[in-house]
Design a protein that fits this description.
Length: 118
Amino acid sequence: MAKLNQLSKSQLLRRIDSSNGVARRARERSAKTVEGLMNTAIGGATAFGVSFASARFGGAEGIALGPIPLELAVGLGALTLSMTGMGGDATKYLSSAANGSLAAWAATAGRNAGLAGE
């Protein structure tokens, strides 16, 4: 490998451009990884939060808004906001919150169905 002081100006510029490209691709990959981790964390936190609130304030039966359980209502609301873009700056995270809340509802429904089958 040639020493830097032995390279021509055009060779140095090519190496700089190549290095900049490598750095740009690394930043893009890390941004995608952080976004994925953020969405996973939001989904898990929402699942925990709505399940906790439903049990804490509604007891073993949970909270229901009429015939609709809290987890399902929050999930459908967040999904509607994310799909319509009405969530403003939070729109990109609302689908993760909806997934977490709907997963909490499905897990609770499955658990209750399993207990009823005993």
